[in-house]
Design goal:
The protein is an all-alpha fold and 88 residues long. The chain is built from three helices and no strands.
Length: 88
């Protein structure tokens, strides 16, 4: 039987969390490069535009999803760094 310490489990989880943060950040960066603006600026421009652009709305939905996922990942990262977690 293999025994893995609580600290090792935390380190492995943290490494995976950092990978996910990087992956999602890269997806967001692709949208920022495509449109040349931040998400907030893109969202504001999209909502005031009189012309409906399906591609932009599709990108908006996907981009918004990535932004939400990234916020959750940063919350988890903060909790791990502060020691606010349990290993079952």
């Amino acid at each position: 039987m293999m025994v893995i310490s609580k600290e090792k489990v935390k380190d492995m989880y943290y490494a995976n969390l950092m990978y996910e943060c990087h992956r999602v950040t890269e997806k967001i960066r692709l949208f920022e490069n495509k449109y040349g603006v931040s998400f907030d600026e893109f969202e504001k421009g999209l909502k005031i535009s009189e012309k409906e652009d399906i591609e932009k709305w599709d990108d908006y939905i996907e981009w918004k999803g990535y932004e939400k996922v990234l916020q959750g990942l940063f919350k988890e990262k903060k909790e791990i760094e502060s020691g606010d977690y349990k290993v079952y």
